[in-house]
Amino acid sequence: MKFADFAVGQVIEAGPYVVDETEVLSFAKAYDPQWFHTDPEAAAKGRFGGLIASGWHTCGIAMRLAADAALHGSESFASPGLAYVKWLHPVRPGDALRLRATVIECRRSEKRPELGVLRWRWQLYNAHSTEVLDLEATSLFDLSPR
Predict the structure, then answer these.
(1) What is the dihedral of CA 15, 74, 122, 21, to 10 degrees?
(2) Edge-to-edge strand order for the sheet containing 11-18?
(3) Cα–Cα distance measured from residue 22 to residue 37, given in angstroms and rounded to the nearest whole number
(4) Residues above pLDDT 70, as percent of the chain
(5) For residues 135 and 145, which has the higher predicted lDDT (pLDDT)?
(6) Element (H, E) at 83
(7) What is the CB neighbour count within 10 angstroms for residue 89?
């Protein structure tokens, strides 16, 4: 999508993305090596009753879905960060996640009119419609004449 295609209140949906156990283990071993992400046997005896994906892995899945659904082919070039991120429920191997992205703000920068600013809320849901992730992201778009 191009920046001009976004509008306040617009909802973009994507998915499902099926979470694979091998991917959960691989991501966790590389980036979040806590036992409940890396050791299925120990995790089965833990508070969550089984292996769960890292919250950072979950954010990566949301990014992939947003990129595929809305950012591919756009003028997006960076993000200054997130206003918040909440991991509301654990994500487990086999979960089918879907993204619901809602546009909160879409404007040109007053100081730099060649810069488009998009604030949007990303929510990930599993197949039971349980919300597992909630975050607010800002994306920047290069609107310079080419």
Answers:
(1) 40
(2) 11-18, 96-108, 115-125, 131-142, 76-87
(3) 11
(4) 100
(5) 135
(6) strand 76-87
(7) 17
Element (H, E) at 144: none
Close Cβ partners of 102 (under 8 Å, ≥ 6 residues apart): 9, 10, 11, 12, 120, 121, 123
> What share of the chain has pLDDT > 90, as a percent?
99
Over residues 49-103, the pLDDT tens digits come to: 999 999 999 999 999 999 999 999 999 999 999 999 999 999 999 999 999 999 9
Q: Is it the case that residue 18 has pLDDT exceeding 80?
A: yes
Q: Which amino acid is at 43?
A: A
Can you spell out the DSSP letters for 91-130? --TT-EEEEEEEEEEEEE-SS-TTEEEEEEEEEEE-TT--
φ and ψ of 48, to 5 deg: -95, -5
Residue in the structure block whose two tokens are 């950012």: 71
Dihedral sign computed on CA atoms, order 88, 77, 28, 13: positive
